[in-house]
Automatic annotation (TrEMBL):
It catalyses: L-serine(in) + Na(+)(in) = L-serine(out) + Na(+)(out); L-threonine(in) + Na(+)(in) = L-threonine(out) + Na(+)(out). It is found in: Cell membrane; Membrane. The gene is sstT. InterPro entries: Na-dicarboxylate_symporter, Na:dicarbo_symporter_sf, Ser_Thr_transp_SstT. PANTHER family: PROTON/GLUTAMATE-ASPARTATE SYMPORTER, SERINE_THREONINE TRANSPORTER SSTT. The chain crosses the membrane at residues 12-31, 37-59, 79-100, 137-157, 178-200, 212-236, 284-309, 321-346. It comes from Paenibacillus auburnensis. This is Serine/threonine transporter SstT. Keywords: Amino-acid transport, Cell membrane, Membrane, Symport, Transmembrane, Transmembrane helix, Transport. The lineage of its organism: Bacteria, Bacillati, Bacillota, Bacilli, Bacillales. Its main location: membrane. The keyword Electron transport does not apply. Belongs to the dicarboxylate/amino acid:cation symporter (DAACS) (TC 2.A.23) family. Involved in the import of serine and threonine into the cell, with the concomitant import of sodium (symport system).
Amino acid sequence: MNALLLKWNQVSLVQRIFIGIIAGIVLALALPNATGISIFGTLFVSALKAVAPVLVLLLVMTAISQHKKGRQTNMKSILALYGVSTFLAGLLAVIASFVFPVTLSLVTGASDLTPPDGIVEVLKTLLFNVVDNPVSALMNANYIGILTWAILLGFALKNAHDSTKNLFSNFSDAVSQIVKWVISLAPLGIMGLVFDSITANGLSSLQDYGKLLLVLIGCMLFMALVVNPLIVYLNIRRNPYPLVLHCLKESGITAFFTRSSAANIPVNMSLCEEMKLDKDTYSVSIPLGATINMAGAAITISVLTLAAVHTVGIDVDFGTALILSILSAVAAAGASGVAGGSLLLIPLACSIFGIPNDVAIQVVGVGFIIGVLQDSCETALNSSSDLLFTATAEYAKKRKEGKEFMILTTRKSA
């Protein structure tokens, strides 16, 4: 048994995850009634979500408290990359929706949803998350609130005794070790998630929305494989694809199946450590990216909104649609503070075209039908981009300073 475990641990984590995917598919087809298998996926996602808030609080607080005066981080560059990427994603979705217009067969059954009344409400929710009670923020995984408290406590502890700082650093290392243990269980968790997805949702319900899915997923793939690499190249002046594909493979696959940017925070943190990125930077940029770096959400909002526009027969000029790309970028950044995420922001976007709320809610219903693939691809794009742009900003800084740098894209066996 020990020899078998040793050989298993020598296989790379990505290969083990693929084995988990295949096992999940086989079990779903062979034993569809063995519903107990799906508990492995639920436990895996729950474990990641449980450890992520504590990890973020301790890492950010420790990094800031031990930050040396005069040492520069790359947060300004990373925030710029997040903003540019999210806006371009919304713009790409608008262009694709004009080139490949989609109409919908509207459904009912989503009348109990409560979308925000306007962009002011989205931003207000975001502000209230900033001043949330720290215990409440940890319990509800409110990462804006967690980041706020971590930053404040970090600055308050800058003048603390070294022994106090070391205590928090030791706690941070301990939680990081727990994260590594949880991530090592990813193949088993992914197996459960794949089993649950196939047996509970199936793919038959997606057939009627094939064209819509093609536009949505096509935009996300174009963003991940064309636009993001172009952004990376303009910053590091090197072939971007080794880094881009590494981030998609290592971070995107896990995010695809967990369908949670928050759950993928520990995965991205671990990858940043393995890539030897600056801890002072990634301990803030990764959890912040899980909150505001929402290129996938911007695509979802823009595509489904313009699908509603085409369905009800509204003529829209490109200038008005361009406003939609800006609105979708801003709204997507605040999506984490709204119950239901990006889909519940669709009525907000629809309102600028005068589409009635009852029609917009039906579009949200369509979003839930295709959510099996839409949400998975959206999360994979969002979360892998957090890692991608954190690494890009650091490599770009070294390039500008004339320093040699190596893009580390080989993951060690977990």
